[in-house]
Amino acid sequence: MGQLQAIASHQTFDRLSELDVPTLVVHGQSDRLVPHANGEDVARRIRGARLVSIPNASHIFFTDQPDITRDELFSFLDEVAPLKVP
Q: Domain ranges in the chain?
């Protein structure tokens, strides 16, 4: 119950536009807990954010589609902070 109360009182949508860092928003297309439109809204509010919609994945997308999730995360990290091997 405490978690639900915290979520209900924690509103950050209006501050997302202040972020100025590379941002990847990942959302399961079949998420029934948090509507996919929320992920779209978050990505739209953060300047330059990239939205990745994971097909056939619900709220816990990383267990539903671990390979796609891994590939998308590594691709994003390689793009924004490439590993420099000596």
A: 19-80
